[in-house]
Design brief:
Two copies of one chain form a homodimer. Chain A contains 14 helices and 19 strands. Chain A is of the alpha/beta class. In chain A, strands 7, 9, 10, 11, 12, 13, 15, 16, 17, 18 and 19 form an eleven-stranded mixed beta sheet that branches.
């Protein structure tokens, strides 16, 4: 039986899960792969703390070079996280002729082009299934199963923290702060949750999805993003009345030669399958021009689900090694010489449906003034909800949903409306997806 | 640019879809694969009828040997369907050293062992993603993405015809006969629907899933199956009252060294994601010991969704060809020398929850008599619904659900109950899944 020697960098939660899984399912993996994984070294700055798996003392090291310079190690599993050290380790592993498996979406989204180019030059493979959607086989599905399809659209719930918070707000009527606190208490959110709730994490994942779906080099900062911290229980209630659930969606839509890419809280119809994705689950709703809808759902994080994806990549790469080849599927799904810079649609030119919640004075003429301004920007009203709920400063909420309108027009109209003295504060805007989300 | 020569056997709906897709996305496929598919010959008994795609007359043939003996053709796509001719063609293609892609679940479920052994001997690959779940990447997910997992369970909606019929019965209150008629009018059901509604088609698919999940040789007839033709609107209504939806589920559960495998109408909780799979969609809910729940959903049939899976397999095999190898993933997910005969749990020994609908006389003592017999077989009652709806012969429906009970006990109890003169006709039994279906 062949041995595949592996070096693991980063012995945190996921690293522990990988060791646990390789050990518990060792015999199963042998039956499927026909080879055995041998963890030759585990590098971490902390090799003293006891983990939930026991490993022999002599395979632990604080010196990553024990892995990077070991000629016997053919696969390096990078589970350090972050950009700086991880990038150095991964590039050194590649230049040492080692295949790399990583769960690091920040690294791939930010330095993917440099890393992939280096891997092409050195004829090694990079497995990054765990970087997007945890255990969900979204990367393999895009690169292999749907390879015959133009990807018409991807709608994804890609961040478990945000989805958990929105689920608690929706199901339990909690406000944002208290749902966030719950998520933190359960370990679903960090002490500093900015990265998740401001959609930075989701942007990393969408950047990777865009790159694979369209064969493009993506500049992370070009992707429009809004987080969930401004969503109130009022908006969730109004959404319910209108037949919608609010989710933080990452959206990619093919529009001829340009790509529409945006991340924001989104109202989606109750009966769409994405609306049934609750708690800390992730999901991807893809539409291919031949496949039609394909929906993938599972745990987007967590020790064992992420380890499942890491080990899946290790097996994938090992099957290539055992077949005597170094790689068979291009890293970005397209052949290297066909990768192009992405051409993103300007957010101003996006057209969708909108929900507005105004805080207005409770007197006649308000609706007329607001609808007049909307009309002057070609924004058609599809429904109005006016309620006698007194807010602070004698304001009442006025909710308006629109037919398809252009983002630029909407922004200009709201700027004008928010200057009216019959309107208090900044108007809440949430986009609605009905059409593209078949 | 490399050319990959392909021969297509069977120019029906799916064959037409494959040609259409290869033509429409030719440039896209080149960008991803770095090669071009050349359809060298298409064989069909009918080469006169016009199809929705135009092909040059000279590539059409009625003689399948024009494909099977052509040394330039490296991939044979078999879309004939059925067992007899398809088997001959596939085995001849294999013995001619050609890779095969097929959408034929009946063939793979029935003759898979013979075909896979021949392919191993001849060092060729067999792509059969399209045979289960149409466009859904269930085969690749089991063989590759989840390769590090013990598959704890698979719950699948694997037949679009049955799911369409049950959806119409549930949403529109139709009875079975009229929902079947709708399905036939829309082309979702055959004129003779037996194969679908009696769950033969689902059994083929479950046999393939079992084989891949557990590395087993499966005997098709060993799988317990019940179709949907006995489901009445009454049962659907009672299910709704109890918080369940009725779906035809194919179920595989790992129970130590044995496997539980069964297909029958099943009540599942409203809020389980499988309950939201409506119309002619298919879905698979897998639980891996590391991955936890993974849910895959999409079109299980149809021209272009099936063509998407066929072309995905063609690209997969071509990537191997271009890398100079003949195969890297074992056909049954496990290495050939680790494949074993399956050890299925006897249906009598299955334990689950049950729904019974008795037709009973409307007088005191009935519930006591029935519950007495159930009790004597160790069947605990979890709920009772008794309604004053008069049926024929003055019978009223009495609905009982149970705690977990053993199938053998249930069958013996019902046999005894059905002999009581206070009970009319044969009692309806529908199994409920609460526990295994997390």
């Amino acid at each position: 039986m062949e041995d595949i020697f592996v070096g693991l960098i980063g012995f945190g939660t996921i690293g522990t899960g990988v060791i646990k899984l390789l050990r518990e399912n060792e015999e199963l993996i042998r039956k499927r792969l026909g080879a055995r994984f041998v963890i030759k070294k585990i590098a971490d700055v902390d090799i003293e703390t006891t983990r939930p798996v026991t490993v022999e003392r002599e395979i632990l090291t604080t010196d990553v070079n024990d892995i990077l310079t070991d000629p016997e190690i053919s696969i390096v599993v990078e589970l350090v996280g972050g950009y700086t050290h991880a990038k150095t380790f991964v590039l050194e592993a590649i230049h040492g002729g080692k295949h790399v498996v990583t769960a690091n979406k920040a690294l791939i989204a930010t330095y993917g082009n440099e890393i992939f180019d280096a891997a092409d030059d050195e004829k090694v493979n990079i497995g990054f299934e765990a970087s997007v959607g945890g255990t969900i086989p979204i990367i393999k599905t895009l690169k292999e199963s749907l390879a015959g399809n133009n990807i018409e659209s991807v709608f994804g719930i890609m961040n478990g923290t945000c989805n958990y918070i929105l689920t608690r707000m929706t199901k339990d009527g909690k406000d944002f702060a208290s749902a966030l606190k719950d998520a933190q208490d359960l370990g679903f959110a960090e002490a500093d949750p900015t990265f998740d709730i401001e959609a930075v994490d989701t942007a990393h994942k969408l950047a990777i999805i865009l790159s694979l779906s369209y064969g493009k080099r993506v500049v992370l900062d070009d992707i429009y993003r809004e987080g969930i911290s401004e969503i109130s229980w009022q908006d969730i209630e109004f959404a319910g009345e209108l037949g919608y659930t609010i989710k933080l969606l990452a959206i990619a839509i093919r529009r001829g030669d340009t790509i529409e890419a945006r991340i924001h809280p989104t109202m989606i119809p109750f009966d769409h399958i994405l609306a049934s994705v609750n708690g800390n689950f992730n999901a991807f709703h893809l539409i291919g021009d031949a496949s039609d809808s394909v929906f993938l759902y599972g745990q987007g994080a967590g020790m064992m689900p992420t380890a499942s994806a890491v080990v899946g990549d290790m097996i994938d790469i090992s099957r290539d090694i055992m077949a005597g080849i170094w790689r068979r599927v291009p890293l970005r799904s397209y052949k290297k010489d066909r990768i192009e810079d992405i051409n993103l649609l300007e957010m101003d030119d996006v057209s969708t449906n909108y929900y507005f919640r105004f805080s207005a004075v409770d007197r006649p003429g308000v609706l007329s003034a607001i609808s007049g301004i909307l009309g002057s920007y070609n924004i058609g009203i599809s429904s109005v909800i006016q309620k006698e709920i007194k807010l602070d400063r004698d304001a009442v909420p006025l909710v308006i949903t629109t037919y398809k309108a252009r983002e630029k027009d909407v922004q200009m109209a709201l700027e004008e409306i928010d200057k009216l003295d019959i309107v208090f504060g900044k108007t809440t805007l949430i986009r609605i997806e009905d059409d593209a989300l078949r």
